[in-house]
Amino acid sequence: MSIVKKQHKQVDEYLNHKSKTELSLETQVFLSFKHRTPNRYKLLDKLIRANITPEEELTEKTVYLGEKAKKLLRTILKKLFSNRYALINHKYITQATRCKSDQNTIILKELERILKIQFYRLYTNNEGAKFSRHYYIELHPTVIDELKDTGHDNSEFYPEKNRPTYTNRNIFNKDKYIDLESNFSENSEEVRIVENTEPQVAIFPQEAVKPVKLKKRLPNERKKLTNAKRKARVYHFNQYKEPQGLSYHYPLTKEDASQLQSLSGRDFSLQAMNEILFDMSKRLDNRFCSKAQFMAYFGKCLRFEMRDAVKTGNDNFRIKTNITPTTQREIDKEKEIEQYLSEVEQRAITHVCPKNQLKARLANVLESLRSYELLSNIKNFEVVGNTIKIYFKSLVQLSEFETDLVLSQVQSIYSNSEFDIEGVEYVIEDVYNLKSINEHGDVREKRTTVLPTLKQDAWGDICRQLIKTYGIHIYNNWFSNLTPVIDDDARTVELKAPNSFIQQWVETNYGEGIRNIIKKLGLELKELFSSSDLKRGY
């Protein structure tokens, strides 16, 4: 057969070529988006919804796919091009449709002509990974059958670059004059055939072979752990040496209370939690290997606690079974203190005077117990010059901070532009009602004693104990005349009296008591001597 006839046959076959089967619209859409043909979006607009019924009154909007369904279909097709199936959940679908799960279900039903959609509550892939509540999506079986029967070559959506090309494409244009006679013999030159009598060996230059450098590929590690790895993670807690009970964790701290509030979801106060824990520790014998285990258990107990978190939010909340006789006495004492301080504040409102106002100020600035001890022992106030005298019924120890605080409150009440208080003098009033008469025939009457100012050192502590044991008058008459010599390294005390009379009197009447007080404070009385003994050289 001549060359011209062969070319005619090829042209006729190409021009008269038709596909054996016509592709459905769904298959055309798949191929058009796979090969990115220009008419892919026009074909997508022609797709009919799969969830329409003949009874509905159909319009252009109800027949064809909606915009959200088109957008979701394009997203799913991209996944199908790279894999045989797509596994997505409602969260992924919402990113494309911006709809909720019930609306996403309706949108997926529109695509059932081109996609096969199956919902799995729990799906396990070939690698063993489990996915809950996912859609398994693949191409519809009819579309797959069409692609197998027809092939890509018979489709007009097959890309142009993959079609077989011809060098003489002008022969397809019927409008032009086509000269099919060959002028091959005219344009060709003579071909000379030379026989090689001797074999020739071609030698190629050797080039230096460069070693290939292998690129080190970094491992593709996931930053976010998978569910399997997260479950396999081992948590290490600070274990106790021995399992501890509920009483070991009593009382709770503020940090524990805030953590338990978040674990239980209930706003119990720290006082209420400690009371509940103390009550449980007397009834239950649970053991815990770590603090975290106890927090998880107690947080669950607080979650189902029947008591109201608001009603138990008072700081004075107590459970009756937790109240012991000692605790009851403390509660009664607290109530007595609160009642007394409230009466002091009420008296300052009903009877306005500097004395009542000063008591109300002291009740607010000092601690409740200290203010009660101070105010209950105050008998009277007296202004003498620029000094105010406070008369006490009994001895009250005040720290330097408390004395400064009392002075500031006194100045705020009594001082003005014309008069200023410079100091406060504390006086203990001791009354003697004795029937006996002294040798001069005089009856002993009321006598006031000034409270001494003691230093915050070892001798000051000894003097306070002496006053507490023997009284302020014996201290002023005898112990105030003693001069201490304290050796801090040896922990010894030497007392020097001004004369032998005081030295003998103190040694005879109070020597044993002084030694006991010094011994309780961790010291030792070495010697009690007088200044006359030093002169004699003893």
Notable traits:
single chain; 538 residues; alpha+beta; four-stranded mixed beta sheet; three-stranded antiparallel beta sheet; 43% helix; 14% strand; elongated
Question: What is this entry, summarized?
Answer:
This protein is of the alpha+beta class.
Rg value: 53 Å
Task: Profile the largest sheet.
Answer: 4 strands, mixed
How much helical structure, as a percent, in the residues? 40-55%
Strand order within the widest beta sheet: 6-7-8-9
Sheet/helix structural class: alpha+beta
Average pLDDT number: 76
Kindly estimate the percentage of residues that lie in beta strands according to DSSP. Answer: 5-15%
The coarse overall form would be: elongated
Low-confidence stretches: 14-20, 153-191, 431-447
Number of strands: 12
The helix count comes to: 21
Q: Span from first to last CA?
A: 156 Å
